[in-house]
Amino acid sequence: MRTIVFSSQAYDRDSFLGAHPTFDLHFQQVRLTLDTSALASGFDVVCAFINDDLSAPVLQRLAAGGTRLIALRSAGYNHVDLVTAKRLGLTVARVPAYSPHAVAEHAAALILALNRRLHRAYNRTREGDFSLHGLTGFDLVGKTVGVVGTGKIGATFARIMAGFGCGLLAYDPNRNPSVEALGGLYVELPELLANSNIISLHCPLNDATRHLINAESLGRMKPGAMLINTGRGALVDTPALIEALKCGQLGYLGLDVYEEEANLFFEDRSDLPLQDDVLARLLTFPNVIITAHQAFLTREALAAIARTTLDNITAWAAGRSCNQVEA
Ligand code: NAD
Fold first, then answer.
1. Going by CA atoms, what residue is nearest to atom 30 of ligand 1?
2. Which of 216, 220, 297, 213 is closest to 253 using CA atoms?
3. Mutate to test the pocket of ligand 1, among 49, 74, 80, 103 (most ligand atoms within 8 A of CB)
4. CATH class of 3-98+299-317
5. Which CATH code is given to the segment(s) 100-290?
6. Contact between residue 326 and residue 38 where contact means Cβ atoms under 8 Å apart
7. Ligand 1: residues within 6 Å at CB?
8. Residue 248 φ/ψ region, left for φ over 0, alpha for ψ in the -120 to 50 degree band, beta for the rest
9. What's 167's DSSP letter?
10. Is the pLDDT of residue 206 over 90?
11. Pocket mutation for ligand 1, best pick of 172, 174, 294 (most atoms within 8 Å of C-beta)
C-alpha cells in the first residue's frame, strides 16, 4: 500500500522503518493542510498525526486524489470529520492504545517538577545561585488527586499517584473497577474540583468536554490547586486559566497540550517572535510549565504506534478489522 506519512519527524521515521523496513512509506515533514493535501495525490493511505487537518475540505481533496484509508498515529480522533469521511467512503483507523504509561508518567513528571520547582532550581544553579527562596514544595503523601477520565491513561495515572500515598477522587461516566480497587472514590465533577489538591485531565475532547475547565469550574477549585492537562488543549478555556493564575486561585499549571497548538508545536520556532499572545502570557508565570505535546514521546510508545499503524494498514488492505473509528 502506497502510504504518505504527514507531520513525520526523524523519530517517526526511525520507529516506522524499525517496525517494517520494506513497507512502502513516503515521509513528509509538513503538516497535512488544504495546501499540502496535493502531496497525497495517488497515495492509497494517508498516515496522519494529531495536528494534521482532517476537516471536510481536506478529506474531499484526499478522496479525490485516490486516498481510501486515513491511518491515524494517535488514539484521539477529535480532529477528524468522521461524518464527511464516511460519506466519502474513507476508512479511518487509529491506535487505540500504545503506552498509557508514557502519558501518565509525563503527567506525574509535571506534578513533581511544578511542586518542587525543578524548572526554577535547574536555571538557578546553572547561574551559580544556590539559594532556596521560592522553592518550597509540599509533600504529596496524603494529598487528594482528582482524576477526570479514568480510562487507560487515567487509571495508570491513578495507580502512580496512589503509589505516592495520595487519596483519589475520580470523575468519569464509566467507572473503572481498577481505580476503585486503589481506593478511588467516584464523585460528580463539582465535588472533585472542590476537594482535590491536584486535578489531572484524561478524558477525550468532544462536545461534552470542550472547555470543561472554565472560569466557573476554576472558581470551584481549592485556592492554590494544581491543574495538569495532558489530554487535549480545548478541554480548558485558556484565557480563564490566565485570570485564575493572576489572582492565585490556580496555584500551579502543567500543560502538555494547548488549544491553538496546531501551528506551533513540533516545530523549532525559537528564531521567530511568538505571535500567540495567550501562550506568551502563560509562559510568563513562574508556576506554569508547558511542554509541546510530548507526553506520548517514549521509545516504547513510538514503537507501539508504528507497529499498530502498520498492522492497521495491512489489516485494512486484507479486508480485516483495523481499529476503525466511525461517526
Ligand atoms: P480511554 O478511551 O481509555 O479513556 C477515556 C476515558 O474518558 C473513558 O473512561 C471515558 O469514559 C472517559 N470520559 C468520556 N467522557 C468523559 C467526560 N465527559 N468526563 C470524564 N470522563 C469522560 O482513552 P485514553 O487512552 O486513556 O486517553 C485519554 C485521552 O488522552 C485521549 O482522548 C487523548 O485526548 C489524550 N492523549 C494525550 C496524549 C499526549 O501525548 N498528550 C497521548 C495519548 C492520548
1. 231
2. 213
3. 103
4. alpha beta
5. 3.40.50.720
6. no
7. 75-76, 97, 100, 103, 148-154, 171-174, 202-205, 208-209, 230-232, 256-257, 293, 295-296
8. left
9. E
10. yes
11. 172
Q: Which residue's alpha carbon is nearest to atom 36 within ligand 1?
A: 231
pLDDT score, position 100? 95
**Which residues are the active-site residues?**
232, 261, 293
d(CA 49, CA 262): 11
pLDDT attached to residue 21: 87
Closest ligand 1 atom to 257 CA? 41
Ligand 1 atom closest to the Cα of residue 154 is 26
Average pLDDT score, the chain: 97
Give the closest residue to 240 by CA, choosing from 222, 203, 214: 214
Reported as type and span, the H/E element at residue 307 is helix 299-317
Say how many Å lie between the CA of residue 152 and the centre of ligand 1: 8
How do residues 164-204 score in pLDDT, each as one tens digit? 999 999 999 999 999 999 999 999 999 999 999 999 999 99
Tens of pLDDT, residue by residue over 80-102, are 999 999 999 999 999 999 999 99
DSSP state of 265: T
Q: What are the start and end residues of each CATH 3.40.50.720 domain in the chain?
A: 3-98+299-317, 100-290
Nearest to 255 by CA among 231, 239, 271: 231
